[in-house]
Amino acid sequence: MSTSLRYIKGVGQAQERLFAVLGVTTVEELIAYVPRAYNDYSDVQKIAQLKPGIVTLQVTFSNITARYVRRGLHITEALASDESGSVKIVWFNQPFRKTQLVANTQYFLSGEFGLSRQRMSIVSPVVERADNLPIHTARIVPIYRETKGLNSASIRKAVNAAFLQADRVSETLPQWLLDTYDLIPRHEALYAMHFPADVHDLAMAKHRLGFEEIFRLALASMLNKQEFAKQNALAVPFDSDFAKQCVGHIPFKLTDDQKKVLWRVFQDMERTHPMNRLIEGDVGSGKTIVAALAALMAMHAGYQVAYMAPTEILARQHAVSLQEVLAPLGYGDSVVLLTGSLKPAQKRQAHEALQQGSAKLAVGTHALITDKVAIHNLGLVIVDEQHRFGVDQRKKLQSKAKSMPHVLHMTATPIPRTLALTLYGELDISIIGVMPLGRLPIKTTIVSPNSRANMYKHVLQRLLLGEQVFVVCPLITESDMLQAPSAENVYKLMAKQFKDHSVGLLHGKLKADQKEAIMQQFIDGKLDILVATTVIEVGVNVPNATIMIIEGADRFGLAQMHQLRGRVGRSNQQGHCYVIPSDSKAPSARLRAFASTNNGFTLSELDLKLRGPGALYGTMQSGALDLRVATLSDTKLIAAARAGAEEFISKDENLLHYPVVAEHVSRIRTITNLN
Ligand code: ADP
Ligand code: MG
Asked: Residues near 535 by Cβ (< 8 Å), separated by ≥ 6?
């Protein structure tokens, strides 16, 4: 199993190198190289009954002719016959067929039966002799991820040879797990992935292997959680008078969900084990204030707090708004901003303040951890929009403290619960499910790119009322490759359309201080319209902005557009979102769904179904989420695998008995481990 591919019959040195490109270097890896799709050629038909479409036949060949027509065109023709009749076969530019096909010999053939040059025929079918078990035809045929020079047919041959030569694939899971969850042995499952006897056989194989993938993920996160729980943390005593005082200074009434979550956080922080909690709440649900109150309690207890935001713009904004919240409580001066674009002198000053302890709340981006910042008395780390941070970054930040700080993560990416429990099993999850009172649901309208007049009219009305407008584009500059609107072009368009208003342009290619200056102008109301790329996606809070226009909308994921839409309607003003597809065809079901609901959970589930987990999680844990068989929308499988992992841990099974699982789990843990 662990031997090199070279020992497989038919695999030479050249092919071995090509397999390596696909990440396959051993026999075991080849056998575990699961197909990405299948062609069902299992139904062997009779020629007399053929209907147009993909067909499979068992035939003999006769009348084989080959002719050179002109440069670049060589035609081989043959008559394929079974006992019911004959059909014409044509191959283009495959002259070897003439010598390959032997008369009076049975062949399997799979291809498309249809009209070609006014005659019903099969063009360029796949052919193989029928005296062996078929590999490329007459069965459910696997298709693999290929690389130049190595196609699925070659991979099928190698896999077939590997199963003939190699030992049985050893079992990786305990027998009781197989019995309880109706899982077939690993060997049978892998064999069936490559050589499914029928659709049911394939489903059983996928169930077994998919279960194992999720089982490992769940196991990894549970083990992380156990380990995390063993660490010591400094307790933050709960001072109820102080809490009341803080809440009294907030200019609004906390929602019930905010109170509930806050209460959990205070309880968590009182323990001598580190809190590791994720707050999930749709955009605009008010997560920041919960974090601010937690920070206050930690500072009140004498600790320092690190607040990490995904972008500089956001860090700056948070620093300002936190200062406002903290000032009446006497902590206004203890906030320092620490971002990459600070001048060296400013940075030094911030560092010193943190080191000496006069600064208690450091707000920043990843600079908070890449810099050699010493935060001696770190009691709480707040990570905003946590899926934007690499796990390594979180680890580094946490290692800055002498003992483990409490950690509070916040995300607006609504993740279905079973999935969240599996992926983030090491986190406790709290949900803010209601919006602050008086918030009006955003109205979303789909606008055809060629009929913008009404939208412009409405935008002008809002501008005249002193409100502001965001326009988001998928690209910075026009591209020949992609038919999508660019921020630069749309900027010109808007400037022309709204001559009496000021329009700004913001994108990732600008220097950090330029970006910030423009964002600041928009926040201060000096710009009426901001045309931008998705740099404004997360978290920016400009309550006076009431219109969000999304250009080239089919280029964005639903969850992403929902984030963008969450940038408006953040006050008691009605928010509007205009969604403009790239072309004037009827809008897709996706866009219509987006326009019809304001529920982030519904949209992310739809995204999950339509575009897979990548759309939802971006780069989050992409290494760990390397699922080959399981799909994250299969909630039943996920629930079962999670239950299996729980049982496994409760039985106190030793992972050493399951080396393959152990190895995978440890790999996942190093990627996802928060310790
Ligand atoms: P998010 O959850 O997306 O981070 P924010 O924390 O930025 O949302 O809050 C969005 C806006 O709602 C902010 O302007 C905030 O001051 C306001 N807000 C938060 N909680 C409440 C509440 N309970 N009542 C009214 N407004 C609130
Ligand atoms: Mg936020």
From this structure: 311, 313, 506, 507, 508, 515
